[in-house]
Amino acid sequence: MAKIILVEDEINIASFIERGLREFGHEVSVVYDGNAGWELLQNESFDLLILDIIMPGMNGLELCRMYRQRFGYHSPVVMLTALGTTDDIVKGLDAGADDYLVKPFSFQELEARIKALLRRSKEVPVQQLVCGDLILDCTLRRARRGNMDIDLTVKEYRLLEYFLLHQRAVLSRLTLLRDVWDKNFDTNTNVVDVYVNYLRAKIDKGFEDKLIHTVVGVGYMMTD
User: Fold this and answer.
1) Edge-to-edge strands of the sheet including 142-145?
2) Domain that residue 38 falls in
3) Closest CA to 212 of 154, 162, 155
């Protein structure tokens, strides 16, 4: 059982999600706009946040960004959106979300995502991962290469951590979607390629030795 906050302005959708979460034994607090959500988040702690993006007052992106800046990355965030393009998804992940669901969605899919995120949040990570001169501090969620500190978004951190845990293994896009994005099917999205390019710009740009390599027709591999 988890303590969950749901911030959703559409009453019918909020009621549908709340009922399903309670049936699975979760404790649920529901508010209907971003400002009310921020007020509640400042007064109570939650194991997981479910945030709609488009809503009155403070939108979900702003709320997620403020929450991450104030409280860090311990509690996972799921974004709900009616906008399912790669650009929209990237905006949500860059704001600090761990996952997203495009409306309409089934409650079974939402619950599966919640289980995966809660399980991951309880895992005790290793303190440090290394590839060549790249060091990932798993406690601070920061990377360093040479003399350069590298700030990472939530999803960039997840992706880099996965690469480092599977060094020298060829990872397909579907494998990364399944294990980093918790998706078990081809969504016809290029979000993996977008985030690999983000990582390359942060950890490989300016360095002669590249760490993330493209395996043509298959996927990607990290190696020094």
Assistant:
1) 128-131, 134-137, 142-145, 148-150
2) 1-119
3) 162
Handedness of CA 188, 113, 82, 54 (dihedral sign): negative
Bridge partners for 215 per DSSP? 219
**Distance between CA atoms of 203 and 211, rounded to whole angstroms?**
8
5-7-8 Cα angle (round to 5): 140
Report phi then psi at 104, rounded to 5: -80, 155
71 and 6 co-located in one domain? yes
The neighbouring-strand residues paired with 222 are 212
Q: Identify whether residues 199 and 150 lie together within a single domain.
A: yes
- For each of the chain's 224 residues, which pLDDT tens digit applies? 899 999 999 999 999 999 999 999 999 999 999 999 999 998 888 999 999 998 888 999 999 989 988 877 778 999 998 877 777 778 888 888 888 888 888 899 899 889 888 887 776 556 788 998 999 988 777 899 988 899 888 889 889 998 998 888 888 888 888 888 766 555 567 888 999 999 999 999 888 889 999 998 889 999 88
Q: Residues 138, 143, 145, 146: is their CA dihedral positive or negative?
A: negative
Which residues fall within 8 angstroms of residue 212, CB to CB, at 6 or more apart?
163, 196, 199, 200, 203, 204, 220, 221, 222
Which structure tokens are listed for 208?
């002669």
Same domain, 22 and 62: yes
